[in-house]
Amino acid sequence: MKIIKNIEEMKIQVNLWKKEDSSIGLVPTMGFLHEGHESLIKRAVSENEHVVVYVFVNPLQFGPKEDFAAYPRDLDKDSELCARNNADVLFAPEASELYDKDAATFVNVERLTEGLCGAKRPGHFQGVCTVLTKFFNIVKPDRAYFGEKDAQQLAVVKRMARDLNFDTQIIGCPIVREKDGLAKSSRNTYLSPEERTAALVLFRSLMHAKEYILSNDNVTVQEIKSLITMEIMKEPLARIDYVEIVEGENLKEAQEMRGPLLIALAVFIGRTRLIDNISIEI
Amino acid sequence: MKIIKNIEEMKIQVNLWKKEDSSIGLVPTMGFLHEGHESLIKRAVSENEHVVVYVFVNPLQFGPKEDFAAYPRDLDKDSELCARNNADVLFAPEASELYDKDAATFVNVERLTEGLCGAKRPGHFQGVCTVLTKFFNIVKPDRAYFGEKDAQQLAVVKRMARDLNFDTQIIGCPIVREKDGLAKSSRNTYLSPEERTAALVLFRSLMHAKEYILSNDNVTVQEIKSLITMEIMKEPLARIDYVEIVEGENLKEAQEMRGPLLIALAVFIGRTRLIDNISIEI
Hints:
Two copies of one chain form a homodimer. Chain A is an alpha/beta fold. Chain A has two domains: 2-173, Rossmann fold (3-Layer(aba) Sandwich), CATH 3.40.50.620; 186-275, Pantoate--beta-alanine Ligase, Chain: A,domain 2. Helices cover 39% and strands 22% of the residues of chain A. Chain A has helices at 7-19, 35-47, 75-84, 95-98, 116-120, 124-139, 151-163, 193-198, 200-215, 221-233; strands at 2-4, 24-29, 50-55, 89-91, 105-109, 143-147, 169-173, 238-247, 260-269, 272-281. In chain A, the strands form two sheets. Chain A has a six-stranded parallel β-sheet with strand order 1-4-3-2-6-7, with helices on both faces. The first copy, chain A, has a three-stranded antiparallel β-sheet with strand order 8-9-10. In chain A, helix 6 packs across helix 7 (151-163) and helix 9 runs antiparallel to helix 10 (221-233).
């Protein structure tokens, strides 16, 4: 496996592959790779002749009070994981090369980014969409793989790829969880042992909501939101950022519990902000 | 020459060319082609193995009170001009195919778009950048050709292509003028005979400013702006939209008459808004 740190070198590699007419899969990441990322890489390897995993902690998608500087980094371990899973290239450019000092161009997806994490993290999705446009233009992937844990990101990126006529198919992959149900996340490393236990409340409250929906008729959006909210409030280390139920594709607030729905949470466990979600079809 | 009206068909053609490893030149236009466009097409044909001229009156770059509906259209004549100049494809997609009803993605270039036409036409450059991103992704040009008449557009598109890592070289081509100096523009067809004569004031005032700069030492920005303003004000059919002197690359308001500068005008002649500019290096 090659490690490429330079944009021009990446473009040369991509052009060689394009000349052979071989397919390229891209797995965009911020590094500190875990089994969630690994599942994306495996899927990409199974569906494409060549796979690029990029590792880039994108300053543009962090707010001024967020954890950009603290975000965990371990390129050696990431590189082992990518090699073990037969990725062709680990692409890790420097922010100083990717963003010129006078960079002034930004990609925005409106509406879809207004609720959920978009409401809580202003500028976050502009950062995500701008950097992905850049990486799509550099790597020219046939397919790009995203985890369903960032459900809003997945919906936003699908819309962006369609709207801007990218030749890239956006593929969502199921959330990978620890044995006890906690969604895998690089941010889980921030958690103390007590917080790690408390963090289970995210998935547990979602599972209880699901059971309740499946075993009761005519439940309302407000009932389900309250059920989840109450359960999380009982956990002293948890502080709710949002509990939302939205329509599957356009992410509009659900008015009733009908159709394909997404139940999405963001919860602070101590100082660590975790997200989780489930999709249900009623 | 082929006329392609469908995005998928255009992509298939582009992929065939890419497989032969041949270069693609793109000439983006809103149609009603004149000798200005023709000069771009000739240059594109001389520098690329294949040339696509697109004709698309982009609703996104017109304000609600602007001339979108009235904008002149003549695809038959455009097609003759393209064929005569050996373009390979005239690409003329429908707005309904290019923009999905729930399209929500927009490309913005900040700062560079704040002055000049950007200040007078809110949303205009967002429309330009968004549609160009789409066409760049569809046509994948090695080079794209723009007239220097839209000097701000050229600067904005250069910045966008660099910032988003497009593999497209942005090439500016000199303004083509009528014999009496009026810059060629599809909007010149709006002018009555009296207005056509009055419209000469744009270029004339720029030429007088240039003479004054070349024959006087230590002129100030305000002197030159006043000189131009006074000359245009003497023309009863003209109404100034802006007279600006900005730095060449970043389009910041010039503080002194030094370095590469752009003197740019927008003037209403009757109801028709015309633009013109000259570059000077002092």
